[in-house]
Amino acid sequence: MVTALDVAKVLVNYQNQEDSDLSNLKLQKLVWYCLGFCGALTGKKLFDDEIKAWEHGPVVPTLYHELKKFGRNPVELDVNPDLEEKFEKEQLEVIYEVAEVFGKYSAWKLRNMTHEEAPWLNHESTAGTIPFNEIVEYFKTRLN
Questions:
Q1: Chain centroid to CA 33: how far?
Q2: Which of 21, 50, 65, 137 has the fewest beta carbons closer than 10 A?
Q3: Could you tell me the superkingdom of the organism this chain comes from (predicted)?
Q4: Shortest CA distance to 29 belongs to which of 109, 88, 87, 83?
Q5: Whole-angstrom Cα distance, residue 4 to residue 137?
Q6: Partner residues linked to 48 by β-bridges
Q7: Cα end-to-end distance, the chain, whole Å
């Protein structure tokens, strides 16, 4: 099964490592968009990790704790060359599209964008879990 960390590794591998700005915060938001758009397009979860509505937007706690050692610095992850074989073709296409479309924004711009989205707004007062069905329904409205 694919994990949120696997998605983060694909994103890190996709971006040029030498001038990476993929901090924990930025990766959290990109992983969020990957989950949302994959869910809206396929109806299936990209990964099973739980998503919480934390102060700075949607967060995958397991991923946060794995990456917090990097602080605000770019995340460096070892990527197995066979990692992409874990993913379906359509999933990788969505991840690459998210990297292209949303990867150009700063971590704080992405954070602010998520603060305007219903799934986070509906659960931020309790820092609660954001249900997958709410994520899918919201992201369906974002598809063209």
A1: 5
A2: 65
A3: Bacteria
A4: 109
A5: 20
A6: none
A7: 29
